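Workshop exercise sheet. Pairs work together: one partner reads the sequence aloud, the other fills in the structure field after running the prediction. Swap roles for the next sheet.
Pair: D.N. / O.F.
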Amino acid sequence: MDLYGPATKVETDTLHPRLISILVPTYNTPDVWLRQCLDSVLAQTYPHWELCIADDASTEPHVRRILQQYVDHDARIRITWRASNGHISAASNSALAMARGEYIALLDHDDELHPEALAVMAEAFQLNQHWRMAYSDEDKIDAKGQRYDPYFKPDWNPDLFCGQNCINHLSVYERALVNAVGGFREGLEGSQDWDLALRCIERLHREQIGHVPEVLYHWRAVQGSTAQGVGQKSYAHSAGLRAVREHLERMARTGTAVTEIDGKLGMFRVRHPLPNVVPLVSIVIPTRDRVELLRQCVDSILALTSYANYEIVIVDNQSSEAATLDYLDEVATNPRVRVLQHAERFNYSRINNVAVASCSGDLVCLMNNDIEVITPDWLEEMVSHALRPHVGAVGAMLYYPNGTIQHAGVITGVGGAAAHPYCGMPKGYIGQMGRACLTQEMSAVTAACLVVRRDVYLEVGGLDESFAVAFNDVDFCLRVRERGYYNIWTPFSELIHHESATRGPEDTPEKRERFAREVELLRRRWGRQLDYDPAYNRNLTLTAEPFALSFPPRPLPVVQAETSETPRWLPATA
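Structure field:
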């Protein structure tokens, strides 16, 4: 059994016979890897393919001999012999010029396809006829044929894609689309496939970009291969940086900057510009006694925050301790701070809704009173994303006081409701394939520190007051997403979260009962959507820590598309 290959064999006789052209540029490929690559194509269960090989003037005589053997063996294999070495982009364009298929698939000369790779992709395109490009999951394969290090990818995630090439392998495109963008660009060698994908997505709507959550591609990890790290080919990092920068320039993202992340080759940070006059941000902090926490929170904001235009709105929910009341009187004299009284029973959603209704900021920042600011530009980073028109809620990287990760976004469905990935991992932990270091779309982020435009907050009705304590942020973010906005998590806004220090853990019968009710409400409202988070993958577990492997992979319901905008690979909603 291939645990992380296709779950069921595709009946190829039910598929439209659409020709797929596999592009393979070769150059002095070692005998064993070249044969295994070509054999993986011959082993495809989908018969409607052609293999377009462009040999880039190999100097090793075995390459021509092997390639000619395969051409003689199967008429679907065609080859062009380049007269001079032009490197991978030029060779890939030579292969593209030979292609006759409706679709093209990219295959490196020393990698392997899963036997069902083309069949699964052909089925996916047939069931999602609005797709114009798609990508699959992938893993690595070593010199002994052992597969390891699978990358179970999210569905299309444009912010993540600007930080790393998460499309990579296996990628399949409409040939007409690739020709329309001019094929592969010379000078981008090492990241020519990333650059190609960036130029293609510029012409597409997001629903035209598909993801097939199956491992269909095995990336060869041998000495000198980027499968062992981008450091094996440092020019690939420079080419990737150039590709992303030029993509943003073509998209007219004025002022957007792409910067390298220290020590992380092949991963980048995109900085979005702020307007010359920055909008007012209302930072809403519910509180009740525990003055030492509130003081630490407010003082850290006032002392460290470099963002120029903010107000702090403290919502006092029936504090009774003299020290707290004295501090509230004292801090209210600061022109940046005002204190609201909230005399009702504790309901986190209600408190924030009342406060936001009284705020004048263009943006609101929901913040727990047990948050501590540690980086001056935390608010610039969050606001720069929240001002993007298509963005809804923005979350930050939160650490426990001991420096380990507390919050790096929210994965829905885990534990029956939702969970934070990477909890307890040390600061600097890179996460699954570097995702803990990269800005990306997430289905939800925590309201312990959340920035959103005030008009978006009001548009979705604020926090649902049925969720008095837990999951109000998850429900809010899902409603924001339902309205067509995308929630963003950034690791570049860093704060400390002294978690639940005010209200304490869920350790009494009353609290446990209330928590169970809120889980039930979340499940009843969102149903199976919780279990199929587009920022997650069916090969990853819902019953243990997020990003642990699922054994076996979780089944993915198959539904026929009702409209051209409904991907077949997404489940029906409950």
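Discussion prompt: The CA atoms of residues 267 and 570 lie 28 Å apart. What would you look at next?
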